[in-house]
Amino acid sequence: MNELKIPRINESIYHETLNNGLDVFLYPKLEMEKTFAIFSTKYGSIDQKFTPLDEQDMVTVPDGIAHFLEHKMFEKEDGDVFQHFSERGASANAFTSFTQTAYLFSSTSDVKENVETLLDFVQDPYFTEESVEKEKGIIEQEIRMYDDQADWRLFFGTLGAMFENHPVRIDIAGTVESINEITHEDLYTCYETFYHPSNMQMFVIGNFELDEISELIRQNQENKSFEAQNEIERDFGVEPVEVYKQEEVINMPISTPKCMVGIKEKPEALEKDVMLENDLVRDIALDLYFSKSGRFYEQLYQEGLMIDALRLEFVLEESFGFTAVGASTMKPEEFGKRIKEMLLQIKDETISEEEFNRAKKKKYGELIREFNNLEGTANNFMQYNQMGIDFREIFETLESLTLERFKNNVSDWVSEEQIAVCMVLPEGE
Amino acid sequence: MQTLIDHKVDYDDYQLHVIQSKKFKTNTISLKFARPINREEVTGRALIPFILQKGSAKYPKERDLRLELDELYGAKFSINSAKKGENHIISFTLDLPNEKFIEGESDLFRKGLSFLYEIANNPKLDGNGFDSDIVTKEKETLENKIKSIIDEKMQYANMRLIDEMCADELFGIRSHGYLEDLEKIDAQGLYHTYKKMINEDRLDIYIVGDVDEEKVKSELESTFQINRQPNVTINRPEVIKPSEIKDLTEAQKIQQGKLHLGYRTGITYRDEQYPALQVFNGIFGGFPHSKLFLNVREKHSLAYYAASRFESHKGLLFVFSGIAPEKYEQAKEIIIEQHETIQNGEVSDEELEQTKRTVIHSLKETVDRSRGIIDWYYQQVIGDRELTNQEMVDEIQAVTKEQVIAVSKQVQLDTVYFLTAEDGGANHE
Question: InterPro entries given for it (chain A) (predicted)?
Fold first, then answer.
């Protein structure tokens, strides 16, 4: 295994790409009680149109299928995989994001057995017509739970306003109608295409023996056979630079309105060599202007435009990217208008060296803090590795980021046609 | 497992707890002010965290305060209030990077302490009260927050269940306060409530991290000079038995119904039966292998979530689940049945062992987080019992099936609360 030293914190991760293409990362932290392991595939809700393994033509699968598949991985002929983990006191879980499906456990004993179970259950699908039908009731309740949550509706409303064709606009869990179309054959098609080891990665972090676990994973994978697979063809449609709709309104039975302003990224901001820098620039810009120490925050507060804090998010992926500023607000229209004005004003604002260096200090401290959290650390490394980026470079990128570069970067970031405003309003208004 | 040690130092007016750990890249400092909850003061106390975060004598604006935190390498700071048993707790928490990861920095911890002292002890004043503009503005913030609870269905249902179940008990008081009491609060009266907190509440100070105990003590002694006269005793309520089961239904425009059940266990943190209660909860509904999850979700596909959790200082247990409105009778019956099967002794040896392992795992996992460590020890202050994490593990290990069954017979259903759809779910049939 290769030792990857992490600057600043004096710790190391060990990495190896196995013969079947699986990327393995091991990060021993013997001072911890627990071990967290995550086995993940580069396959998320956006991967709906693709060429299945060994076929020629693109297919389009129902919305929400990656998430549905994630639910069904846990069921096997001899019962539920959760049981095997909990027999050893471990807790298992899984999640589906736009670009990733991940299976994970945390345990404080029997790490070897749990790692083995994790690898084996994800690499042994068992889908039947009956079990697929049974799951529909459960996922329907999951969808309805989200439908009642205004924050969730606001977030997807903003995405739907920003993106015209890109599948990021579609709810990760799909809709009650779309999941009802899913068959067990569909699940196998997706599984066979996206769950090949060369499209996957495994990260283990915490209290375990490095050699023992690395050997176990290698052996486990050598005992299984996988045919070599070509690069998967995926189609995300053609997405214009400008937003689909400048404004979106959702009415639902709530008492407090909400508003979110989204900025769609230009495709050149998502290129691999600028990704880490752009991540930092978005983060620092949000801090300088919209965090509680930010320039615009106080104005918004004084103008009574928000209840408590702002919700700040940014996502940069290979095929899409956006930044969002949202809040619960009694004046949603005004909030949207002001945020939009402020965003457009950023390129004309002057930031001093002092302010910029303080923001860098803050970011540096936050990076250090993130290493407290095993789950977060694993997710950071995997999310970037999936795009071919080594997350460790974030330290160097931060240190070498100058005010000049920051200014240039920010001046290309936002223009009016990239901005969409979404509001969730009480019904009847 | 590593045994954690809480090095306690008793001062006249507060108790210091230093917990040394090499697990973290940051150091956490937490101040916890506690007194028995009462209806007269609770709204004011709920407002205090909002006021104090808006400025102090040295940092007159929120932005000044937040900029200082940025200077401290993005130190994370929060003040919040909560209910523990029948006590109201106001917590100040500051988490700062450990200096050893920052070149040329050796004084961060002391600066952090000074910051905390400033915010807690030198609020921004206006004559003999708080700054009245801040008070007016923050009353509005709290008002809006209280009003928006109804938009968070799970939280709302929990609140309503406790309202009804504990209507005549101190536990029934809402920790975030009441709209009708908010109107009566002014800057002077609120300052008086704050003075009582700072001078008379029980105060516990926690420090967790890779710190030198002697150094921390001397820095704390020189920084924190509050002349306090604590005069409160933690409230440890008498156990109440339910008389008859209350059944309540409320309708709103929602897609998913929330079925919440309140039980009385009569068992609190310092009781001999407390370990058996933890195991009972695990078998009943604490985990994905529990009876509730397996039956409500996996067997009958009625819900995405169905779980239970217990409260440690009042002796309560809650079941919550999100179901289709028309499935109310069936879901309620299945939930009650799961409790009865445990009462009838239907607990397998595997179930018992598996649950004990899972409970122990959760406990170990808790102490991998600095906040988890603080909560774990603070539980002991409120619960009036001292023990190490290893002792707790040993106690759980020793729980027998008979003890679990005995607990299950003591646990009694008190209130069933159902938040349902106005159309009774007619649209979804």
Answer: Metalloenz_LuxS/M16 (IPR011249), MPP/UQCRC_Complex (IPR050361), Pept_M16_N (IPR011765), Peptidase_M16_C (IPR007863)
Q: What is the pLDDT along chain B (429 residues), one digit of tens a residue?
A: 888 888 999 998 999 999 999 999 999 999 999 999 999 999 999 999 999 999 999 999 999 999 999 999 999 999 999 999 999 999 999 999 999 999 888 899 999 999 999 999 999 999 999 999 999 999 999 999 999 999 999 999 999 999 999 999 999 999 999 999 999 999 999 999 999 999 999 999 999 999 999 999 999 999 988 789 999 999 998 888 888 999 999 999 999 999 999 999 999 999 999 999 999 999 999 999 999 999 999 899 999 999 999 999 999 999 999 999 999 999 999 999 999 999 999 999 999 999 999 999 999 999 999 999 999 999 999 999 999 999 999 999 999 999 999 999 999 999 999 999 997 655 443
Residues of B in contact with A89 (CB under 8 A): 354, 356-358, 360-361
CA dist., res. A71 & res. A67, Å (int): 7
Q: Which residues make Cβ contacts (< 8 Å) with residue A376, sequence separation at least 6?
A: A370
* Domain spanning A2-222: CATH superfamily: Metalloenzyme, LuxS/M16 peptidase-like (3.30.830.10)
Give the strand order in the sheet containing A23-28: A2-6, A11-17, A23-28, A200-206, A35-41, A101-107, A91-96
For chain A, give every residue range classified as CATH 3.30.830.10. 2-222, 247-426
Contact B62 A292 (CB under 8 A): yes
Per-residue pLDDT band for A40 (boundaries 50, 70, 90) equals very high
Query: Which CATH number is A247-426 given?
Result: 3.30.830.10
- CATH 3.40.50.720 is held by the domain B246-421: no
Chain B CB contacts of A373 below 8 Å? 369
Angstroms from A7 CA to nearest CA on chain B:
10
Supply the ipTM of this predicted assembly.
0.93
Alpha carbon B109 to its chain centroid, in Å, reads: 26
Pick from B276, B271, B295: which is nearest to B285 by CA?
B295
For residue B23, the distance in angstroms to the closest alpha carbon of chain A comes to 6
What would the two tokens of residue A396 be? 């160097």
Do domains B7-223 and B246-421 share one topology? The answer is yes
Which residue among A108, A294, A371 places its CB closest to the CB of B361? A108
Work out the minimum CA distance from B323 to partner chain A, whole angstroms. Answer: 7
Record: contact A32-B95, CB cut-off 8 A: no
Partners of residue B370 in chain A, C-beta under 8 Å: 372
Tokens of A120: 């084996």
Q: Give the A window 300-329 contacts with B, CB below 8 Å.
A: 301, 304, 307-308, 328
B7-223 in CATH: which number? Answer: 3.30.830.10
**Could you list the active site residues of A?**
70
| Domain ranges for chain B | 7-223, 246-421
Q: pLDDT for A343-384, tens place per residue?
A: 999 999 999 999 999 999 999 999 999 999 999 999 999 999
pLDDT one-digit tens code per residue, B350-399: 999 999 999 999 999 999 999 999 999 999 999 999 999 999 999 999 99
Tally of CA atoms within 13 A in the half-sphere of B149 that contains its CB: 18
Q: How far apart are CA B373 and CA B389, in angstroms?
A: 10
pLDDT in tens, A135-167: 999 999 999 999 999 999 999 999 999 999 999
Q: Does the beta carbon of A291 lie under 8 angstroms from any beta carbon of chain B?
A: yes
Which two tokens mark A412? 């290309």
Ramachandran region of residue B423, left (φ > 0), alpha (ψ -120 to 50) or beta?
alpha
Rounded to the nearest angstrom, the minimum Cα separation between B268 and chain A is 24
Question: Which of B24, B102, B323 lies at the smallest CB-CB distance from A372?
Answer: B24
Interchain CB contact of A110 with B (< 8 Å): no
The vertex-A366 CA angle with A309 and A5, nearest 5°, equals 155
